Amino acid sequence: MSSAGAYSRQEIGLALDVLETPCLVLEKSRLVANVARLKRHLQPLGVRLRPHLKTAKSIDVARLVMDGAQGPATVSTLREAEYFFSHGVTDLLYAVGIAPNKLDHVFDLRRRGADLAIVLDNLETAQLVAAKSAERRDPLPVLIEVDTDDHRSGIKPPDSILVAVGRTLHAGGAVLRGVMTHAGSSYSLQNQASFEATAEQERSGIVAAAAALRAAGLPCPEVSVGSTPTAHFARDLAGVTEVRAGVFMFFDLVMAGIGVCDIEDIALSVLATVIGHQHDKGWIIVDAGWMAMSRDRGTARLTVDQGYGVVCDLTGDPIPDLIMIDANQEHGILAARPGAQSSPPKLPVGAMVRIFPNHACATGAQHDRYYVVDHDRIVSAIWPRIYGW
Amino acid sequence: MSSAGAYSRQEIGLALDVLETPCLVLEKSRLVANVARLKRHLQPLGVRLRPHLKTAKSIDVARLVMDGAQGPATVSTLREAEYFFSHGVTDLLYAVGIAPNKLDHVFDLRRRGADLAIVLDNLETAQLVAAKSAERRDPLPVLIEVDTDDHRSGIKPPDSILVAVGRTLHAGGAVLRGVMTHAGSSYSLQNQASFEATAEQERSGIVAAAAALRAAGLPCPEVSVGSTPTAHFARDLAGVTEVRAGVFMFFDLVMAGIGVCDIEDIALSVLATVIGHQHDKGWIIVDAGWMAMSRDRGTARLTVDQGYGVVCDLTGDPIPDLIMIDANQEHGILAARPGAQSSPPKLPVGAMVRIFPNHACATGAQHDRYYVVDHDRIVSAIWPRIYGW
Question: DSSP code of A68?
Fold first, then answer.
């Protein structure tokens, strides 16, 4: 019933068990609650939310998350920029350092009406972007990436390189729109005090970078931060203009494992069907393997390793101690969590389960659509997802 | 230049560096050589090859691999069955234990002309398939899955359950087409003697299962085995009618790491561009992260851990000791292999590289197309790939 193109509005109101498995299930009320939670937290801090749509890759989800139909929004690929722009989203930040071979594509999107800003963190790229901006007579808006937690990209203090990059852009034909950072190290923390400390480190680091540019006589209107843990635990965002975050909309087992959300907040799951057993080992075999769950095993480094996922009943309630302990491409092996006190039920062939993922971004990317539900009822037509570059 | 739909035949003959990154690159001569190698090995053993198209998910690749335009072929999803059938491939085995909710779809494909066979390993499913075959007046062809290496699904000796399943199918309205097994444990072996031993264990186990069915007066025309390591190292396939294998067509760092191929045989790579550096750490940042490479870290358990991939120049030659040591969603971090004797070159911003993957099936699944090359030249129009279910 769920083969490509065969799904229609007539399934609305039916139970989940009419679907062919595996497929991606989105609990709409949890999505709405997760979005409301972050907005409630950010509103009194006086910053706008520029949601990172790489987690959703769906205009239907984006419309429930964005402040307006035109954005603002963050994307991780130019394919996402093309797609969301085709649906009327114009205020876009492409938040991965620009590669020279993507500049023609960026100019083309802007020529068609997208207010697409880019990111860079080095002098060579700044020189190229400035020169191309002048040559094309389209001053590209640029945020300079700053490294505030030593985890990946961005310019670190001292500020001489930052100022040189800013001056190159500003003097050379581009638009210096501001600075941005991403406290990716926050994903490896595990308590509220450390989230708060990292959020303050992210804030103070980026505000100092903005101050350095301004002290050199350069403009810096935007000061952009963001990661799901720091966005939720920041107590003060003075000097920051916007927050980017993505996984907050769905949450996942890593976010629950480090304490950013509860397991009951997870909005995304994979629907699967029991296809067999190895009774001697206590294994239940399902038709969702790593292709449906992704290979992401983010909880492996946490206090509780959830395998390839936590197994729930059709309404989305976890079945105690039942996880996906291993996976092949299209096979998942469900079994009791190592050290479990209870024996999970022996689900018969044909039984259907929902499985919470380690990482919503990675699991979502394996699927081309969302089935939108309220508990075990389908409440919407399909929401398509995009993928690739 | 490579945005969706913008690519055309006019790029044939151009160098790879015209492409937008990241993207998936397929070295055609290596694909052709890998296919020829396995066929050369199997031909004197008297078995047919039923290639597993889950690795390729592309009709253009399939046509270089299959013995004929109509197959035979193996698929891992009904989406693959739909897609290959729409391109004229009719002789199809869906090699994952059937879920009850997929039977309507299977009957529908068969009604439209696909000779689609299914797999199961338990009495409950056999009873359902027999009943549905009778009800639909379409005797479904079934291969019973047998477990010959204790790694996943399938019926194990004693043969009483196997015979009961076979009898249920044969007497009840389905077609008992034979038995199949998959020696998936072979991926964790690392030398020729163990591959040969596991291939013989796979062969003798499945031939014994076929004999048990025949001894009970049941038909068993097909005896199907397969995994890429056992397919290459089997010395005798007496009693076997067909071999299934998939990753052999592309190979990858896991297959090279366990000794099934050389690193120079790997046909699949991801094209990426340098977008920045962290000079103090010796890091080169590229625009291919785990979304482009997949989260598969299969080499982590092998003698040589290749990180997220081995970095090559544009012609596909490895750059000594340069690997992707870590990855975020759209960022990859290239650095010297831990313990490396040499210092890899400091690739400048804008430089492009090709990266061999840990696991061809997982990396391929992240992309919607192949760019087909001979060294650094594009030699074909795009070959599209499918995904999802």
Answer: B
Total domains, chain A: 2
Residue from the list B125, B184, B388 with its beta carbon closest to the beta carbon of A367: B388
ipTM for the assembly: 0.96
Handedness of CA B224, B228, B231, B234 (dihedral sign): negative
Beta carbons of A295 and B292 less than 8 Å apart:
no
**Contact present, A290 and A270 (Cβ < 8 Å):** no
Contact A100 B273 (CB under 8 A): yes
Interface test with A, best of B57, B151, B329 (most A CBs within 10 A): B329
Same domain, A211 and A245: yes
Q: Nearest CA to CA, how far is B238 from chain A (Å)?
A: 28
B228-282, pLDDT tens digit by residue? 999 999 999 999 999 999 999 999 999 999 999 999 999 999 999 999 999 999 9
Out of A4, A120, A331, whose CB is closest to B96? Answer: A331
Cβ atoms of residues B258 and B348 within 8 Å: no
The CA distance from A265 to the nearest CA of chain B, in Å, is: 23
Mean pLDDT of A336-355: 94
- The tokens of A266 are what? 């997870």
For residue B120, the enclosing domain spans: 29-251
SS (H, E, C) A48-67: EECCECCCCCCHHHHHHHCC
| B227 and B264 share one domain | no
Instruction: Pick the closest to residue A348 from A289, A283, A274 (CA basis).
Output: A274
Question: CA nearest B2: which of A102, A83, A110?
Answer: A102
CB–CB of A122 and B20 under 8 A? no
CA distance A207 to chain B (A): 21
Instruction: Give tens-digit pLDDT for A304-327.
Output: 999 999 999 999 999 999 999 999
The reply to whether A243 and A319 lie within a common domain is no
CA-based nearest residue in chain B for residue A290: B362
Q: Looking at chain B, which residue has its C-alpha nearest residue A20?
A: B101
- Let me know whether A172 and A264 are in one domain: no
User: A120: domain CATH number?
Assistant: 3.20.20.10
Minimum-distance CB partner of A99 among B122, B277, B287? B287
The beta-carbon neighbor of A97 closest among B145, B275, B291 is B275
The answer to whether position B4 is within a domain reads no
Same domain, yes or no: B242 and B339: no
List the single residue in B101, B277, B292 with the smallest CB-CB distance to A20.
Answer: B101
B295 and B347 share a domain?
yes
Strand bridging mode A268-278 / A23-27: antiparallel
Tell me whether residues B147 and A278 touch, CB distance under 8 A.
Answer: yes
Residue A389, in any domain of the structure: no
Å between B44 CA and nearest CA of chain A: 31
For A282-313, b where at least 16 C-beta lie within 10 A, e where not — what string?
A: ebbbbbbbbbbbbbbbbbeebeebbbbbbbbb
In a domain, B176, yes or no: yes
